[in-house]
Amino acid sequence: MNMCEAFSQLPEVNVTLLVNRNNDFKLEPNTDIWNFYNVKSTFEIIFLPQLSRIIGKITLLKKLFTLFNLASALFKEFRNRREPFIVFSRHHKVVKLMKVIQGIAKNRAYRGYFCELHDLFTGPVYLKSYAGLIVISSALKKDLIDKGIKVPENRILVAQDGVAIHRYENFPEKDSIYSEYGLPRGKKIIAYTGRLAKGKGVDILIQAFAGLKNRKDLLLLLVGQIFDDEYREIAVAHGLENIIFTGFVPPSRVRAFQLIADILVLPSNRELPYFKYTSPIKLFEYMAAGKPIAASALDSISEIIRHKENGILFNPSDPQSLADSILYLLDHKDFSAKIAARAKADVLDYTWLKRAENIHRFIQQHINEDTKD
Fold first, then answer.
1. How is 209-245 classified by DSSP, letter by letter?
2. Which of 203, 180, 187 is nearest to 265 (CA)?
3. Residues forming beta bridges with residue 193, ordered by sequence position
4. Which CATH architecture group holds 167-349?
5. Range with the lowest mean pLDDT among 20-24, 227-231, 244-248?
6. Any idea what the Cα angle at residue 283 is, between residues 279 and 287, rounded to 5°?
7. Cys-Cys link to 243, which of 45, 52, 62, 220 (CB 3.0-4.6 A)?
8. What confidence tens digit (pLDDT) does each residue in 283-321 have?
């Protein structure tokens, strides 16, 4: 949604987003999707038909239904488009479908298929199928090349995720968060925002906080949907009292929690299947919030966070290392303010709009090259 909004702000760019509602896309009835994601309605959204809940549980039927509806929607777009257009997707397997559809439609306005990758994948990729690849970290680009991907290096663009910085300015709602969620005032808030799921390192953060439970002036705030009861169990086992699980929070409201925090923690660990390549959106949100950051020293995160320059890096999966980092930030206020300010300045290079501009420039370059060929 953020990238669609950013692309739509570029001159002479029109965006249509195809959404598969069967793919973990869950909104309450009558929810305004634009307000939910806090984006402007500057692009078109086409929702693919949705299976009933009962039939949707049959995996094969679900896949076939989704494939059919995606193919139908794409074919309609190919048939009706007269102005030059490209297809941009995060699903590399869609390229096979694109070849079939273009083979039937033979639309001369079609300029190619660009794919954004967040992980390595199995199977070959051929230049004839892809006009270009966008990857979210330098590590992913390197491993793709080492794997022998049959796409020239100059057709692989590194573009980390980003943030909408303007959303972190003049945000009065942050004050109402205290009363709405029953947050005690006067405590130093150590916060994590995002899904509470395996590989996110939330268990490490809770264990680290357990080592600080004698500090009654601290509050651990975990903001996000809980996917595993293990986290509550860990908190109970350690006898933690100054800890709050908010449960699911709409994306448009998450930044309020980030703005009231004293320290923001990114504890991602190597249990994540894609830990080598992760480019967490929350990292850029943390930077935009202007608060000191303690983050795991994963290679992909170290591309953005430089130890003791714009954040503190701790050993992944090491609760003591994280606890020490939190204490250091608490005990060195001037240092914490300095690295937070540096991070906020650095994140100006990682806005969604700048990312869209870079990708658009990359697309235009290779479209022009292919047209000459």
1. HHTTTT-TTEEEEEEB-BS-THHHHHHHHTT--SEEE
2. 203
3. 223
4. 3-Layer(aba) Sandwich (3.40)
5. 20-24
6. 140
7. 220
8. 999 999 999 999 999 988 999 999 999 999 999 989 999
